[in-house]
């Protein structure tokens, strides 16, 4: 019998494996980054951490389940039914969204730490992109169009960190320097974002 | 065989547009961060929302017309276990990338999703499918997902794939059983009679009227008088394949019916390739047959009959006597059967009494299960003895029964009959 076409090619499997590994690493990273130190968190940190861990594990399981594909069990045994129910639970709920909310809540439960939140912003955005690339089985090249916007977004994040950090500095040369850096960051962000926004498909069609 | 014509018409498909999962995640990230920024009065959360908000700012909803798709099966006929190509042409939605994924039916295997980049008014892709079972069924559905440049908008269109009728995979068979007496019809098997073939038969003395080019000069020189070479005539033979579709037991995919059809398909393919005249009788709820014939078109007719004939057990039918029209005198009869239907056994006895040379290829590879109790074991043993008795009784009347496991080639069980000509007894 001729060999059947593989449901996923070896290159596709490798890419998917890397994608799941990257998403797992980023999910672990954002949970740890936003949760620790646990002792510094306000009331509700531990439940939020538990929710983030569950959501993180399930979101990775969701990606893995999508990679395996549909293997419907035709059995009526309790074990088969339980397996079907568990698979449905993994696939149906938006675990990645739940992880994002849980991580943001964890971060909010800690005292203000602007640079820490900025790093979390980069990692969370990376996690969202990694999940998207893994579930669509696409390469990183599809994000080329989004790159200016991403750069602009990160620049705006830096801007917000600067704004949040301003009250901590005393007025003087440092204050003036930070204001100049913020101004430059804003100009760069707008300069990167506007061309990408103008090149939207809808605008091209309208023209 | 595929039901598609040479050029399938374009089919318009409605496209269902929505936010992509990626956009939903970005939206959740942005909204949650903004809400937290407002609640906690911390500017860094607003900054956290910035990348997601900027990416979402490129979202554009607009009129998205339907898409037109043409799906064409690349091959004229499908065979189980053999990869087939499905050509898909997409018209419209050129700014969007398209991802084509086959959601296969139960008996079909499909490959990974194929990504078709945007930028062209007409785009095409080739998808691979493997039908794993013979019969008639749909290949499944084709899901086409359109995504914009920024991966925020997603359009999904669903196209139903054509119905196909894959043929059973032909069992490998290199050699063939040849009868000792062949009908007087030009073919490729060397017969015992002298004729105009190419196989050397002997030397005889020249008589007036013989062709001079046949003179055997070495023999003439040695014997002192003119001698010439004689050659065997080349004849065809009539082969009738009987496929017993009354019973289907065993694991799906290797059941007795699967083996019957694969074996019959292999024998038909082999004998038609050897320019023999091949006929087919389907022994099922009712009899269906095609008289012996030759050629590629005949091969299609036989295999179409094989997969379209109704199977199963029909108690009302009396099938112990096979029709004369389907059985030319002097035919070789190959029977593929698990020998579980007593009416077929009776029909084989009748064929033998009518003087046909019959070989039974037994495809029974399953046994009734038993629970290990004494009564169950006894029942299984009685069933086994009964089966042995049926096969022994056939052997005793001159009908050889060979067992085929469905894995090896048909040459293995038929080896004792393919190495020498099968003498046709009357």
Describe the overall structure:
The complex is a heterodimer of chains A (207) and B (426). Chain A is mainly α and 207 residues long. Chain A has helices at 10-35, 45-68, 78-92, 95-108, 114-136, 147-165, 173-198, 201-206. The radius of gyration of chain A is 22 Å and the shape is flat. With 426 residues, chain B is α+β, with helices and mostly antiparallel strands. Chain B has eight helices and 20 strands. Chain B has helices at residues 21-40, 43-56, 217-223, 256-273, 296-308, 342-353, 374-396, 411-418, and strands at 11-13, 16-19, 67-73, 84-91, 97-104, 108-110, 114-116, 122-131, 137-138, 140-147, 153-160, 163-164, 186-205, 227-235, 238-244, 277-283, 287-293, 332-337, 357-362, 401-403. In chain B, strand 18, helix 6 (342-353) and strand 19 (357-362) form a beta-alpha-beta unit. Chain B starts with 10 loop residues before the first strand and ends in an 8-residue tail after the last helix. Classes of the chains: A mainly alpha (207), B alpha+beta (426).
């Amino acid at each position: 019998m001729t060999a059947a076409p593989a449901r996923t090619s070896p290159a596709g499997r490798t890419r998917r494996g890397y994608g799941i590994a990257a998403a797992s690493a980023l999910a672990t990273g954002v949970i740890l980054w936003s949760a620790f130190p646990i002792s510094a968190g306000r009331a509700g940190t531990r439940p939020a951490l538990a929710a983030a861990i569950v959501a993180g594990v399930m979101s990775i399981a969701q990606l893995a389940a999508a990679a395996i594909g549909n293997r419907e069990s035709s059995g009526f045994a309790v074990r088969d039914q339980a397996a079907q129910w568990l698979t449905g639970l993994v696939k149906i709920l938006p675990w990645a969204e739940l992880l994002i909310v849980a991580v943001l809540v964890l971060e909010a439960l800690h005292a203000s730490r602007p640079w820490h939140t900025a790093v979390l912003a980069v990692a969370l955005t990376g996690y969202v992109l990694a999940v998207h690339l893994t579930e669509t089985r696409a390469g990183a090249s599809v994000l080329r169009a989004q790159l200016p916007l991403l750069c602009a977004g990160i620049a705006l994040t830096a801007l917000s960190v600067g704004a949040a950090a301003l009250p901590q500095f005393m007025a003087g040369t440092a204050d003036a320097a930070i204001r100049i850096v913020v101004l430059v960051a804003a100009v760069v962000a707008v300069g990167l974002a506007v061309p990408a926004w103008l090149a939207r498909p809808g605008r091209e069609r309208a023209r | 065989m595929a039901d598609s014509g040479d050029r399938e018409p374009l089919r318009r498909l409605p496209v269902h547009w929505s936010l992509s999962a990626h956009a939903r995640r970005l939206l959740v990230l942005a909204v949650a961060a903004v809400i937290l920024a407002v609640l906690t009065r911390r500017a860094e959360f607003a900054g956290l929302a910035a990348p997601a908000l900027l990416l979402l700012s490129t979202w554009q909803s607009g009129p998205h017309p339907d898409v037109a798709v043409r799906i064409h099966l690349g091959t004229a006929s499908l065979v189980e276990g053999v990869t087939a190509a499905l050509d898909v042409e997409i018209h419209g939605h050129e700014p969007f990338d398209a991802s084509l994924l086959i959601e296969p039916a139960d008996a079909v295997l499909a490959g990974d999703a194929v990504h078709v980049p945007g930028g062209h008014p007409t785009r095409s892709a080739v998808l691979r499918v493997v039908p794993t079972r013979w019969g008639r069924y749909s290949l499944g559905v084709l899901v086409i997902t359109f995504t914009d440049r920024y991966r925020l908008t997603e359009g999904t269109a669903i196209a139903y794939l054509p119905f196909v009728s894959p043929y059973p995979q032909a069992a490998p068979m290199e050699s063939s059983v040849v009868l000792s007496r062949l009908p007087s019809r030009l073919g490729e098997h060397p017969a015992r009679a002298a004729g105009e073939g190419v196989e050397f038969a002997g030397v005889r003395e020249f008589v007036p009227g013989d062709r001079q080019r046949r003179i055997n000069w070495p023999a003439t020189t040695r014997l002192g008088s003119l001698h010439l070479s004689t050659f065997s005539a080349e004849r065809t033979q009539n082969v009738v394949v009987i496929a017993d579709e009354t019973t289907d037991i065993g694991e799906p995919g290797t059941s007795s019916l699967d083996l019957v059809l694969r074996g019959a398909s292999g024998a038909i393919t082999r004998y038609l390739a050897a320019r023999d005249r091949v006929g087919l009788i389907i022994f099922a709820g009712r009899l269906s047959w095609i008289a012996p014939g030759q050629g590629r078109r005949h091969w299609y007719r036989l295999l179409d009959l094989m997969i379209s004939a109704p199977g199963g057990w029909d108690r009302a039918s009396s099938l112990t006597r096979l029709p004369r029209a389907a059985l030319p005198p002097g035919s070789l009869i190959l029977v593929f059967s698990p020998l579980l239907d007593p009416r077929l056994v009776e029909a084989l006895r009748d064929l033998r009494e009518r003087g046909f040379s019959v070989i039974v290829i037994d495809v029974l590879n399953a046994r009734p299960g038993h629970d290990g109790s004494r009564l169950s074991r006894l029942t299984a043993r009685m069933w086994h003895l009964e089966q042995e008795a049926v096969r022994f009784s056939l052997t005793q009347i001159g009908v050889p029964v060979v067992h085929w496991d469905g894995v090896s080639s048909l040459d293995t069980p038929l080896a004792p009959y393919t190495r020498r000509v099968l003498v046709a007894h009357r």
